[in-house]
Specification:
Blueprint (H helix, E strand, L loop, with lengths): L9 E16 L4 E17 L3 E5 L6 H8 L7 E7 L10 E3 L5 H8 L2 E4 L13 H11 L6 H13 L16 H13 L5 E5 L7 H18 L2 E6 L2 H7 L2 E6 L2 E7 H6 L4 H8 L40 H5 L5 E4 L2 E3 L14
Parallel strand pairs: 3-8, 3-9, 6-7, 7-8
Antiparallel strand pairs: 1-2, 1-4, 4-5, 9-10, 10-12, 11-12
Helix pairs in contact: 3-5, 4-5, 5-6
The structure holds iron/sulfur cluster.
């Protein structure tokens, strides 16, 4: 059974979240349809864990994550967030989906984000010191000299030196720039960080270092992560549980080891088969994902994955499979989740 926010160990519960973008046409900009970027998605994140949210480009994972922290206004659904999870306070639960924006501001201190592109996410005209302290300034917490020490401490925590404070983003490598973005995200001591493809733009050798750093910081700063990635091999290292999305819907969610060794949805199986293998003597058969993710404004009937699924049967073309619990903490949205013998990683 999935946990809910009634459990004090749960930091965030997303219930039936929807985010539709209107399609407008003509002189009067009439709404002629909707792009269902996120369509009835539910998940929870426990305090101190990392939930990996995975799928190909256009599957809705980034929109789901950004809507869950109210960077986009949801079309429908609830986002229940436990405040003060890291410090003093009563652990009150707020519905971020319906909270008036002025009441969101204090909660913004508890939720931070690290962006994919470390070049464009940093203002080139600001020094590293100004970038890292900017969130403190916005919240009226920049205390001058005292904050200098705080910034130095944050830079040291992410592996940068005090003399880097007065330099500018262009003077750093991609990996160092991402470390600056991470230091900025930590400045308000959040409890939850949305990591939006934080290593996708980095060289492979730097990716591993950044992932290790994120793991160390998670322990040091008592953090909970929602980690968005298009590649299962990236989230394997860092996630406790993994959720797979396809055309705006959740199709499988399970603890990491269970999902990688015993996938119960053909889409997860195909994504796993495309991941680089740690042991070349133990190869898996590559399952080609033919075609693109369907257009979310005009998805296929029945199971959205059926045009690309090698196991599809008649029922798949007409009936939409719900996300069903099929084992402890494991859920899949496939009519044949119990019957198919799918290939995982060893
Ligand atoms: Fe494939 Fe049918 Fe399962 Fe969809 S419901 S994933 S089409 S077998």
């Amino acid at each position: 059974m999935p946990a809910s926010i009634e459990d004090p160990g749960v930091l965030l519960e997303v219930r039936n979240l929807k985010k539709y973008f209107p399609i407008r046409k003509g002189l009067l900009r009439k709404v002629v349809g909707h792009i269902k970027a996120v369509d009835d998605v539910s998940f929870e994140i426990r305090k101190g864990e990392t939930l990996g949210l995975v799928g190909e480009s256009g599957c809705g994972k980034t929109t789901a994550a950004r809507t869950a922290i109210r960077l986009y206004d949801p079309t429908d659904g609830a986002v229940l967030f436990r405040s003060h999870a890291n410090g003093s306070g009563d652990g009150e639960v707020y519905d971020l989906a319906t909270l008036p924006l002025r009441e969101m501001k204090p909660l913004r201190r508890e939720i931070a984000m690290v962006f994919q592109d470390p070049i464009n996410s940093l203002n080139p005209r600001m020094s590293v010191s100004d970038i890292v302290r900017e969130p403190l300034r916005v919240h009226g917490l920049d205390l001058g000299r005292e904050t200098d020490e705080e910034v130095q401490g944050l830079l040291s925590a992410v592996g940068l030196r005090p003399e880097h404070m007065e330099r500018y983003p262009h003077e750093f490598s991609g990996g160092q720039r991402q470390r600056i973005g991470i230091a900025r995200a930590l400045s308000l001591r959040p409890s939850l960080i949305l990591l939006d493809e934080p290593v996708s733009a980095l060289d492979v050798s730097i990716q591993a270092q950044t992932l290790n750093l994120l793991q160390d910081l998670q322990e040091e700063f008592d953090l909970t992560y929602l980690f968005v990635a298009h590649d299962l091999s990236v989230v394997e290292h860092i996630s406790d549980r993994v959720a797979v999305m396809y055309v705006g819907r959740m199709v499988e969610v399970a603890p990491k080891r269970e999902l990688y060794t015993n996938p119960r949805h053909p889409y997860t199986e195909a994504l796993l088969s495309a991941s680089p293998k740690p042991d070349p003597r133990n190869p898996t058969v590559r399952i080609p994902l033919i075609g693109q993710v369907p257009d979310p404004s005009n998805p296929p009937s029945g199971c959205y994955f059926h045009p690309r699924c090698q196991y599809a049967e008649d029922i798949c073309r007409t009936e939409t499979p719900p996300l069903m619990t099929i084992g402890e903490d494991h859920a899949s949205a496939c009519h044949f989740a119990d019957k198919l013998e799918l290939q995982g990683m060893q």
